[in-house]
Amino acid sequence: MDRIVVRGNGPLNGQIPIAGAKNACLTLMPATLLSEEPLTLTNAPRLSDIATMSALLRSLGTEITSMQDGKVLAMSSHGLDNHKADYDIVRKMRASILVLGPMLAREGHAIVSLPGGCAIGARPVDLHLKAMEALGAEMDLRDGYVHATARGGLKGGKIDFPFVSVGATENALLAASLAKGTTVITNAAREPEIVDLVHCLRRMGAQIEGEGTSTITIQGVDRLGGATHPVVVDRIELGTYMLAPAICGGEVELLGGRIDLIGAFCEKLDAAGISVRESDNGLTVARKNGRTKAVDVTTEPFPGFPTDLQAQMMALLCTADGTSVLEEKIFENRFMHAPELQRMGAHIDVHGGTATVTGVETLKGAPVMATDLRASVSLILAGLAAEGETVVNRVYHLDRGYEHVEDKLSAVGAKIERVHGE
Ligand code: EPZ
After folding, report:
1. Residue 133, SS3?
2. What is the bridge-based pairing of β-strands 227-230 and 39-42?
3. What is the pLDDT of residue 422?
4. Ligand 1 pocket residues where CB is under 6 Å
5. Catalytic residue among 118, 200, 248, 266
6. Which one of 8, 135, 204, 243 has the largest count of C-beta atoms within 10 Å of its C-beta?
């Protein structure tokens, strides 16, 4: 198995380009199932999760042509010949559940494997199923699969989520776009990836209002056309690389970065004494002198502080001046990186959903284990500022969400390399 070796190498300077968003692309790709006409995504990220979604869609009958080194995905679902999303693909990636809504809406039936557990939490899909039932579908759970039918097609309805779910909102949006009548989603997720999905569906001819707010109204249409849609920039990749100069010192420009996508995160960086400013090509982050200040962080749905940046933020706070309290409110088991950071000399106390981080002068390099996507990159960030060598094992987690991490970081002066396993 590949591993990544990082050596602390002082301040970072230069530019890092930010790719299209994994979590937008994973909900945009299933939209192809809603139409017989081609859907082309540009600015697509090159990641193993995108390859998994492509394999899933191909297994249902979608034709996908990847162009421009994988940045353009031309998809066509004019004829779907299989309505079963198999466990062997779904178990690799939970976002596979996002084919349920569009297949049900277009074909009136779908069989989708339940995703199973995940390192960061139980992550059930009950809200997805309830949303489909609110649109008139019948759900039957059998042998680890959801057997869904919508005789006579889906019908518009009221979907009131008890708490915010990004995935369930996306599945409901995809399904309601072709449902007969009006659907109103309340307590909807407001993430930029949701807004990007609505913009794409609108290009295909959908009638939707309220994206980015908690109430979204969808007027179902009989059919959707084709479209070409640019994937929004990846705010989580952006935040991750903004933390590199914050942790090591220096000044880095993030090409394509947008402050409106990560306002709450930027506020915390500002409070920690890190300068963030808009530049002609994106955002510039700098830490010239002095230690980072301790700050408290609580993860929340957008526009709050993103849970997908919690692990990376913890890496920064490990060497801050003072004690920081991090509260993880979205997932029940998302501090797996803490014991690994402790192996590097960090002082972290975890109690349930709260981690108390007492900053130390410096971290020390050590062999560490990646447990999930965001935990893996937080260990790389910590290694950039640590004395000596850090070896991050199981980096296959990383490749799910970050393209060419070692190239992007070494371009701004980091000492980082990938060692290929047997
Ligand atoms: C999306 O996951 C992202 N994944 C996650 O990013 C991200 O952490 C999460 O949203 C929150 O922002 C993708 O977009 C592919 P949720 P999702 O439904 O949709 C519970 C990354 O690192 N819940 O908003 O699965 C759930 O268990 C990944 O890129 C139910 O109980 O998240 C969680 O505690 C990790 N029942 C909470 O809601 C449901 O039916 C929020 O989950 C659905 C969710």
Report:
1. helix
2. parallel
3. 63
4. 23, 26, 94-95, 121, 123-128, 165-168, 307-308, 330-331, 373-374, 401
5. 118
6. 135
In contact, 30 and 413? CB cutoff 8 Å? no
Percentage of residues in the chain having pLDDT higher than 70: 100
> Residue 347's CB: how many other CB atoms inside 10 A?
13
For tokens 């933020």, the residue is: 313
Per-residue confidence band for 96, with pLDDT thresholds at 50, 70 and 90: very high
Q: Which atom of ligand 1 is nearest to the CA of 400?
A: 29
Angle at 49 between CA 61 and CA 415, to 5 degrees: 150
What digits encode the pLDDT tens for the residues 46-77? 999 999 999 999 999 999 999 999 999 999 99
The answer to whether 24 and 98 have CB atoms below 8 angstroms apart is no
Element (H, E) at 351: strand 347-351
pLDDT classification of 290: cutoffs 50, 70, 90: confident
Virtual torsion, Cα 317, 319, 325, 328, nearest 10 deg: 40
